[in-house]
Amino acid sequence: MSVNRATTRLDVVSPCIEVSDLRHVYKDGHMALDGVNLTCETGVYGLLGPNGAGKSTLMRILCTLIRPTEGSVELCGYDVTKQQREVRRLLGYLPQDFGGWRSHRVIEVVDTLAQLSGLFSRKVRRPRVEHVIEQVGLADVAYRKVKQLSGGMVRRLGVAQALVHEPRILV
User: Fold this and answer.
1) Which terminus of the chain faces fewer neighbouring Cβ atoms within 10 Å, N or C?
2) Closest Cα to residue 132, out of 159, 109, 112?
């Protein structure tokens, strides 16, 4: 697995990612990560490697979806295993598969995920939800169910939910 740093700079991305001696072994004994060390300063990065190299496992650990077997991971100084709430507020995550929301309306999906990211006040959240839906070009279909959207629209919905709470780090 290798990390390539792009020269492009985005204001949305302002991470401080520190990974030290990271190891992850799945319950079946498969070792996905073994001694990974990584430091990412502000910028845009790409994680490259063959299938099975541990890219998705690393992303899932960064996003607090799974816990590492050993090692430490910090995002902007927050420990991903001990300070999950703080990490999740910093983080926008766009998973490969955005299933599970097919029977919900676009606006409901973005609104619910905004709440889960810490935007609890409806007065603050609702305008932000509507704005990000418009930004990704889904305003005309905001009240359609996800199952009625094209594949490209579903990808844009994923981008909207990842950006709705204005994260410092986008994965």
Assistant:
1) N
2) 159
Which H/E stretch holds residue 47? strand 44-48
Model pTM score: 0.77
H/E element, 56: helix 55-62
Domains of the chain: which residue ranges?
A: 2-92, 106-170
CB 2 within 8 A of CB 45: no
Nearest partner of 166 among 122, 130, 135, 132, judged by Cα: 132
Integer Cα distance of 52 and 42 in angstroms: 27
Measured distance CA(119)–CA(13) in Å, rounded: 19
Q: Is 144 in contact with 93 (CB distance < 8 Å)?
A: no
Q: What are 93's two structure tokens?
A: 């995550």
pLDDT tens-digit readout, 89-144: 899 988 877 777 899 999 999 999 999 888 889 999 999 999 999 999 999 999 99
**CA–CA distances in Å: residue 120 to residues 124, 125, 130:** 8, 7, 15
The CATH number of the domain covering residues in 2-92: 3.40.50.300
